[in-house]
Amino acid sequence: MKPHLTFAFGLILAVVASYSVRAQGPTNFPMVGLTKGQTLQINLVSYPPSPCSNTIRLGFQNSKGAAVGPTMTVTPQQLPAGQATSLSYSPAIASEKRLELLPTVTSAAAPVGEGCVASVEVITAGATSVLVPGATGYPPILSSGCWA
């Protein structure tokens, strides 16, 4: 591939990866795989002028849907506009093994505030190796080659 096409493709990926979805209900993340020495971190930011307006719960689930690791409950008073918080989990993983986890961000009521934005990081040796923005819904189902 020519260098300018590679750069353009990389730039498009960077823009897509940095896009943050404004949460209007539960924030959905894909399963995230970790190996030995990695940490999974959920970030929650309350942007003005519409900060997080409901209590938000952060946590992790294993591949069977069972809660694992730490959890955190954040109230609007604890996370005013312009503030951020995070929850980290560093599970003990044996060498050459992989652990799949599902980051969870839920609210007792929707909407949670247009400026309430969640993301997930995989941290390796103190540096972010993967950043995943949250989504507040799933794409429509692909049916017969067309989006439903």
Describe the structure.
The protein is mostly beta strands. It has one domain (18-135): Jelly Rolls (Sandwich). The protein contains 1 helix and 10 strands; from the N terminus they run H-E-E-E-E-E-E-E-E-E-E. A 4-stranded antiparallel sheet has the order 1-6-3-4, with no helix packed on it. It has a 4-stranded antiparallel sheet with strand order 5-2-7-8, with no helix packed on it. It is elongated, with a radius of gyration of 17 Å. The model is unreliable at 1-25 and 138-144 (pLDDT under 50).
Write the layout of secondary structure elements.
Blueprint: H1 3-18, E1 32-34, E2 38-46, E3 56-61, E4 67-74, E5 83-89, E6 99-107, E7 116-124, E8 127-133, E9 142-143, E10 146-147
Antiparallel strand pairs: 1-6, 2-5, 2-7, 3-4, 3-6, 7-8, 9-10
What is the rounded Rg? 17 Å
**What top-tier CATH class fits best?**
Mainly Beta
Number of helices: 1
> Helices and strands: which structural class?
mainly beta
- Rough shape? elongated
| CATH domain fold name | Jelly Rolls
Mean pLDDT: 76
- Biggest sheet character: 4 strands, antiparallel
Query: What portion of residues belong to β-strands?
Result: 35-45%
Number of domains: 1
Number of strands: 10
Distance between the termini: 34 Å
Helix content: 10-25%
